Amino acid sequence: MKKALIFLSVFLTSLIAFGQQITGTVRDKNGKQLAGVTVRNTINSKSTQTDQQGNFKLSGKVGDVLEANSIGYERTRVVAGQTEKVIFTMTETLSSLDEAVVIGYQTTSRKKATAAISSISGKELENLPAASFDMLLQGRLAGVNVQNFSGAPGASPTLAVRGTSAISLNYSNDDYYNVISNPLYVIDGVPQPTEQFVSPNTGTGTNYLAGLNPNDIESVDVLRDASAAAIYGSRAANGVIMITTKKGRNGDPRFMISGYSGLTQRPQLREVTLGRTERQQKLEVLKNQLTRNDYRYLPILLTDSLNPAFNGNTDWQDLFYQKGKINSADLSVSGGSSISSYRFSGNYYDEQGIIKATGFKRYTGRLNLSTKAIDERLTINPIVSYSYNKRARGTGSDVSPIALSAGSMPTSLLSLSPAKRDFMLGAYDKNLDNNESSNLNTNLNLIFNIAPGLTFTSQSAYIRDIANRLYNRPSALMSGAGNYSSAFSYESNQVRISNFLTYSKQFGKHSINLLAGQEAEKNRIQTIAAWGGQGVSDQIQVVTGFLQNNIGASSDLQKWSQLSYLGRFSYDFDSKYLFSGAIRADGSSRFGENNKWGYFPSASVGWILTEESFLKNNPHLTLLKIRGSYGLTGALPPSNYLQYNLYSVNNGGYRGNDGATSYNGQVAITPNFTNGVAQKNLSWERNRQWNIGVDLELYKGRFTSTIDLFNKENYDGLFDVMLPVTSGYDYAKTNSVGIRNSGVDIQLSADVLPRSSTLKWRSNLNLSYVKNRIMNLPNGGRDLVMDGDRFDKSHILSVGSPINSFYLYRTLGVFSTLEDIPVNPYTGERYRNSNGVFNPGDFYFEDVDGDYFIDVFNSGLNPDKRVLGDPNFKWTGGWNNVFTYKDFSLTLFFTYGFGRDVLNLFESDQFNNSTSGDAVYNFVYYSIRDLDKLNIWRKPGDQAEYAKYDIGTYRYYYTSAQTFFLESGSYMRFKNLVLSYSLPERITKRWHISKVRVFGIMDNVARWQKSKKLPDAEAVNPYGEYNGGGYPIPRKYTLGFELTF
Amino acid sequence: MLKYKLVMLLIAVFCLGSCKKFLVEEPVNSTFAEAYWKSAGDLRSALAGNYALVRNVMNSGNWNPSPRYFMYGDAIAKNYFTIQYVGDGLEGIQDGDFTFQYNLQYFADWTNFYKAITMSNIIINRTPKVADELLTDITNPTKFKNEVLGEAYFLRAFTYFMMLRVWGDVPLITEEYEDPISAPELPRSPKKEVMAQIEKDATTARELLPWQYAAQGNAKVTANKGAVNALLAHFYLWKATMSDINSNQPVAEDVDKADKAIDEIIGSGMYSLTDTANYYRTFEGLSSEGIFEITMNENNREGTNQHIANMFLRTAQLSTVGTNSRCYVSQEYLSNHFYKIEDVWDWYWNATLNQWEWKAMPSRSFDDSDIRCRRNFTDLDSDRPTCVKYQKVFYRNAAQKLDPYISNNLIVFRLADMRLLKAEIALYRNQIPTAITIINEFRQRNGADESAFVDDASSKEEVMNEYILERGKELYLEGQIFYDLLRTRQYANFVPWLSESRFRQEGFYWPINPALFKNNNKLIQTSFWRGKV
After folding, report:
1. Looking at residue B5, what is its pLDDT?
2. Chain-chain contact of A520 with B86 (C-beta, under 8 angstroms)
3. At what angle do helices B141-167 and B40-59 cross, to 10 degrees?
4. How many angstroms separate the CA atoms of A482 and A548, rounded?
C-alpha cells in the first residue's frame, strides 16, 4: 500500500499545470445572468460552474469549443473567440433530453441512453412527510413498485423493480421486508450494504434507508434493465437505485431553511359491536346452536348484565391509538468558487406514531466538499454524512404493534378498571425501549484528468452502521415472574475502494466512450446480545443483577468480501446509432473454490430516428428513439458461509429443553443437520433480461412518453431443496429455481395546457405491468406448499403460477337446506370431511377430486385445494399533476395498484371458532363484529352469504384457506395534496431574501378500493394477507415554509 | 505519460496478487468440517452431540409433552393408563389407530432418528482418521479412539434397534455421505438385514468398550460393555421371538445369546439392585442398578419441561399445573397388578344346597404393600390415580416456583430389567420353576403380600402371565411393556385392539409419515397400513 501511495504522489506532483484562462458569462434570453450553469471546454474536458453573477473562468485557448449546460435550458456551444469574453445566451427548454442520467460509474444524457432508466428529481420528494425516501418513491417511477404496507414511522416499505424473484420454502412470520426482492441502493456511487444479518425482531428493525434525509437528494435514477444494471453485476439482479445527493454551488453562501410541522391522524377503526348489542347478538347465536342444557351454563360474563364488571362498553382498539405530531426542520448552506464548493445540510425529523409509544426521530448531517487542484485537473471531493435514528416500537414488531392481536380483542362487555387499563397500557409507558441506530458514511472521490478525454477516478468509502437496543419490561408485565432486560448491538463496517479510467473521444461522426475499472470491498458484521430474566428489582433496567442461570448472551462476527473488474464500451455514430456494451466480473468470498467468480455481460443498441434526414428538424416530433438491450445480472446468497459445513455448537437441545447446550455437561457439537451441507458448487443466482423500449418526445418536450417491454428470467435461483430423510440433513440450498417476470413500463408526461398559458399543468403518469411466474422448481417441478404458514396452509409454490400464490378451497356458497348437500351416489353418504358430514348452514367447498370428501390435511398437497389467487400486484403506478399559476402551485398525486388478490384472515378469524377447546367461552370472551349487518345463515332455508357462526364444530368450514375470504386488493390512493405559494420576487428582494415559499400538505387524502371488507387495501402484508395486525397507514397534515437567502 | 502507465500497472498487479487471499473468509462464528476433528475435545463433543441427538429422538413427540420412547413403548397398551383428549389426537394410538394427522406427522416420522444415525456414521468414519499426534492430552490414544468408536457403534445399534421395534423394515445407512445433496434414495431394508446390522454394530461395540468408565462422571449415562450387553439381551430376545411372527417358538440360539449377555452383566459385579428404602432414587438416575440412562439432569441445565412426568403430574407435585393431568393410571391396572388373596366373608350361593351361604372364601383384593405401588402411585382412592414415579421437579425460578424442569434421567436399561428377563428366558427354555423363583424373588423383595406369590404348580402359560404382570409392575412407564407383550405374545390380554390376526399382519408396527415419500420414491408404506394412510 505504501508503495502505491508513493507512486500516486509522484504521479500527481509530476503534472505540470499550465494553460490560458477563458472568461465569460451566461445569460438567458432576457439577459438575466444564470448561476450554476456548467461550462465545459470540450477540447480539454475541463469544466466549471458559473457563479451568482453568471460569470465563469475556464482554462483553454482561442478556438476551443465551450459548451454550457443547465437543466431546463438547451445545451449551447460557443467557440472561444478572440474577444475577451465568451457570452452564452441560453434558451429555455422543456425537453429533458440533455438531462444527465446516472448509469453507474458514469453519466450520460437521456438522449443517448440506451438502457431503461427511470429518474426523478429530488425536488419532487422535498418536504413530504415521510421518514425515508423509499416510501416516497411510490408511484413515481415506472417499473418500481413500492407498497407502504406498514404505516409505522421509520418502517420499511417493500420496493421491487420489475417484479420480485424472492422465493422461499418458508413463510416468514416477521421479516416481511424480505418477502419481496430488494434492489441494490447506490448512494453517490457507493453501493450500500442494506443486507441485515439479523431478523427485524432481533435487531432494531429500523429501515436502513431512513437515515438518508430525503431533502438531501438531488436525483434518483432507477436502472431497470440488464444493460443498465449489469455494471453492478452480481448484486443487480433486482434492479439498482442510484441516489445522487446535492452538491455545493458556486457563489456566495446560500442559506436555505425549511421546516414543516403537522399532525398525524389514525384511520377509521374497525367496526365492532359494543355493549348491549354485542350481548344480544351473542345470545341469539348461542340460542340457535346450543342445547338447552348447555345454554344454562353460559359464562356469567354474558349472562350477568347487572354485574358492573361485565356491563362495559369498551372498544379495546381505541386504547392504543393517539393523535401524533410530526415535525421536520432542515438547514443547508452551500456556496463556493470556481475552484471549490461546499454544501452542508442538517436535518431534524420527528414523527410520533398513531399507536402509543411508537415514533421515529432522526438527526442527520451531510457535508459535501469539492475542490480542484493541480491546474484544476484534479478534483477532490470528500462527502461525509452521519445520521442518528431513534425509533420507538410500542410493544411489538411492525407485524403487530399493539399488545392485543387483532383477532383476540376482548369483548366490549368487560369494564376496564383503572388497574386493568394501567396494566394494558403499562407496556407502553413503563417499558424501557431504546431502539437506536446510527450511520456514518464517508466517501472520498478523486477525479483526475490525465489527458483530454481521459479521466481517472478513485472512490473510496467507509460505511459504518450501528444499531443498538436496550429493552426492559417490568415484573408486572411478565406475569410477576420478575423483570426482563435485554441488550442488543449490531455493527456493520464496509470498506471499499473503486478505481476506474474513463476515456471519451470523438472522431468526426464517431464518438466512443470507454470505462475500465476495478473494485474491492470488505464487510464485517458483528452482533452482541445479552438478556436476563426473573429479575428481582424493576429498578434495574439493564442486564445486570440477574441470577447467573437466568442470563444469556451471544455474539457473532461475520465477514465477506468482494473483488470486481468492470468495463463498458459505448459508441455512437453521428448521435444516431448508439451501442453500449458492459461487462463485470465479480468474485465473492461467499462461494466455494469452484465458483468464486461470476461474469455478467450486457449489450444494448439504440437508434435515434429523429436524427435521420427524413425526420430531422421535424417541428412536431422532436425525438423518436428505439432501444434494445440484453444482459445478465446476478444475486448473492444471503448467507456468508454456505461453502462450509458449519457445525452447530452447544447443540444439546432436545424437545423439552431447546436451550440445553451439553450432554452430561460435555458441550455437544454436531454438524448443522438443518441446512448445513457444505455448498462448494453453489453458484451465482443469475438473471437474464431483454428490454425493448421506445422514447418519444413531441413539441420539444411538451409531450413525452417512454415505453419499455421486458422479459426478465431469474434462473439458477437459490432455493432450499429437501433432502431424503436418510441423509440426516433437512435442506440444502441449490441453484434450482427459475422465475420469470415479464411486462411493460409506461411513462407519459405532458404539459396539458399550452405553454403560453399562465396556468400551467404538468402531468406525469406511469403504469407498470408485471406478470410473475415460477418457471421451474426442484425435484421435477413438484408443487410445494409453503412451510411455517398458519394452521390453514394457504400458500403454494407451483410451476406456472406466481410466487406465493394462494392455495385454497373454492367456496361455492352456503348449504341452505339439507337437500342442497350432495350425496355420494355410490355409498349414499352425505358430503363430508374427515370430521363428519356437512350440515345446512356450512360452507360448500368444491370437491376437486370428486370423491365426495373434503380433505382437511393441512401440511402438504391437498386434493381438494387449488392454486387460486395471486398476491402480487399486476398493475402499479402513479399519476402526478402540478398546476402552477403565478406564484401558486398545486400538486395532486395519486398512486394505484391493481390486479392483486388479498386473503382476509382477519375476517375468517372472527368466525373460526371451530377447533377451540372451549368454543363457547372464547365466543363470549372475544369481541365480534356486528352480525346484524351480515347475511349470515341462521335457519334452514336462509339464502345466506355467510355460513352459520362456527362454535366448536370441528368442521373447519370457516377455514381461512377458502376463496370466500379472497378479495380484490386493487386500490387507488389520493396520496398527496400540496399547495404552495412563493412570495413574489419584488417583496423578497426588498427583504434581501432570494426565496420564500410556504406550503401545506395533506398526505393520504383519500382512497378508492374495490374491496368493501378490507380497512385499507394497501395495508396488507407482502403475502397478500390482511390479518388485522400491522400498522395502519395514517393521514398526515402539515404546514411548512422554505426560506432561501 | 509512461510514468502513469507504470503506476496503473503496479496498482493492477498489486490488486491481482492479493486477490486469491482477498476472497477467502473463514467463519469464526462456528467450527466447520475441515477445521474440526483435530483434538480429543472435538471427539468428546461430537460424541456428546450424538448422545444429545439420541436424547432428542427419545424425548421428541408432538408439541405437547409426549416423549416418543414412551408413546411407542407404553402408551399403546391402553390398560396401563389413559391419555385424555386435548386436540392433538394422541389418544388415538391407544385404540390402535396410528393414522391421525399429527401422529403421522410426529410419531411416524424418521427425521430425528436419521440425524442421530448420521452423527454416528460421521464419528465412525472420522475418528480413525484423527492422527494420534493430535490427541496430545490423551495417554493412550488407541484406547481413547476405540472407546469413542465403541460408543458411536453402540448408539447406532441402539437407534436402529428402537426403529426396528417400531417399524420393522427401515432403510440402512452406515456410511458418511461425501455430499449429502446427492444422497441416494434408499428403500427400506428387510428387518433381517436391520437385525444383522444391529448385531454387527453391537458386537463391535462390545469388543471396543471396557467395563470401567474412563471418567466416573460418565458412568451410566454413556455406554460401556454393560450397556452394550443390555442392548444385546433385548435385541436377541426380540430377534428370537419377532423374526418370524407366525411362530410362537423362540429361536433357541438367540435366546442363549441373550442369556449370555445378561450373565455377563450380572457376572461383572458392577451393578446391584437399589435398596428398596431408596426405591425412588432408581428413577432419578445414577443408581447402583442403572446400566444405561439418558441424562436429563438439571444440575447441568439439561432437565426438561416435556418429560413423560409432565403427562401425569398434578398440582401436588408440580405447582404450575392444575389438578387434572393429560394421563391418569387406570384402576384396572392397579387392581390387576397389586393384589393379595385373602378370605372374604360374604354371602355365597351354594348350588348343591340351592341356598345362600355366609362364609369366608379366598378372593383377590387390592393391596398396596408392594413398594412399587406405594412409591409409584398416588390419588389411589380417586378414579384418576396419578403416577409419581418420576417427580424430581426443579424450579428455575425457585423463589416463585415457576419455570419447572423435570430432572429424572430417562432409564433405558437397569439391572432389575435384566434379572426379570432371565425369567422370560427360563420360560422359553421351559424351566418353569426357575421363572417362578425369579418372579417371586421380585415380589418378596418389594414387599408384596405372600398370597400374591406365584404358585409352584402354575402352568407355563400362567407363569408367563405372571411374568408380564411382574414386568408391568417393575417397568411401568419405562418404554418396555408393549415390546414385552409382543415378544411373549401376551398382548391379547392387555392390548384390546391388537387381535391375533392383526398381529400376524404385523399391525403393531407403525406406518411412516407420507411426507417422507416426497423425497424418496423408493420408500413404501408399512404393509399393514397400505391404503389406510
Report:
1. 52
2. no
3. 10
4. 14
Best CA proximity match to A606, nearest among A568, A631, A572:
A572
Find chain B residues with C-beta within 8 A of A663's C-beta. Answer: 48-49, 51-52, 55, 221, 295, 302
End-to-end CA distance of chain A: 46
Contact B48 A646 (CB under 8 A): no
Task: Provide the CB-side half-sphere exposure for A750 (13 A, CA).
Answer: 7
A559, A644, A915 ranked by CB distance to B32: nearest: A644
Please state the pTM of the whole predicted model: 0.86
Check: CB of residue B54 under 8 Å from CB of residue B158.
Answer: yes
B178 touches chain A (CB under 8 A): no
Instruction: Summarize pLDDT for B263-318 with one digit per residue, the tens.
Output: 999 999 999 999 988 898 999 999 999 999 999 999 999 999 999 999 999 999 99
Which grid cell is B36? Answer: 474440526
Instruction: Dig out the grid coordinates for B145 from the structure.
Output: 479412539
ipTM: 0.91
Tell the burial category of A616 from Cβ atoms under 10 Å away from its Cβ (0-12, 13-18, 19+): exposed
Residue A540 phi, psi (nearest 5)? -85, 115
The pLDDT score that the predictor gives to residue A398 is 56
Cα–Cα distance for residue pair A959/A399, rounded to 1 Å: 22
**What is the per-residue DSSP string for A726-758?**
GGS--EEEEEEEEEEEEEEEEEEEEE-S-TTSS
SS3 B337: helix
DSSP letters, A997-1011, are: EEEEEEEEEEEEES-
CA distance A982 to A999: 9
CB < 8 Å to A649, chain B: 30-31
Phi and psi at residue A792, to the nearest 5° = -85, 85
Q: Find residues 441-470 of chain B whose CB sits inside 8 Å of chain A.
A: none
Residue among B33, B403, B514 minimizing CB distance to A645: B33
Minimum distance, in Å, between the CA of residue B533 and any CA atom of chain A: 11
Biggest alpha carbon distance in chain B? 137
Beta bridge partners of A358: A393
* B62: nearest Cα among B94, B100, B119, B95: B100
Q: Which residues contact A860 (CB under 8 A, 6 or more apart)?
A: A785, B514, B515
CA angle A253, A254, A258 (to 5 degrees): 145
At position B2, the amino acid (one-letter code) is: L
Helix axes B415-428, B225-242, angle to 10 degrees: 30
* Chain A neighbors of B213, CB-CB under 8 A: none
* Angle formed by the axes of helices B225-242 and B191-208, nearest 10°: 160
Phi, psi values for residue A172, rounded to 5°: -95, 125
- Stretches in chain A below the pLDDT threshold 50: 1-18
- Yes or no, beta carbons of A917 and B33 under 8 Å apart: no
Q: What is chain B's percent helix, strand, coil content, to nearest 5?
A: 50, 10, 40
What's the CA gap between B139 and B117, in Å, rounded? 29
3-state helix, strand, coil in chain A (%, to 5): 15, 45, 40
A931-967 pLDDT, tens digit per residue, is 888 899 988 988 999 998 888 777 788 888 999 999 9
Torsion angle of the four alpha carbons A163, A168, A173, A179, in this order, in degrees rounded to the nearest 10? -20
CB atoms within 10 A of CB A607: 15
| CA distances (Å), origin A564, targets A460, A600, A694 | 14, 11, 32
Sequence-ordered alpha helix ranges (H) in A345-397: none
Name the residue with cell 500516486: A8
Chain B, residues 358-397, CB within 8 A of chain A, namely: 396-397
Over residues B446-474, mean pLDDT: 94
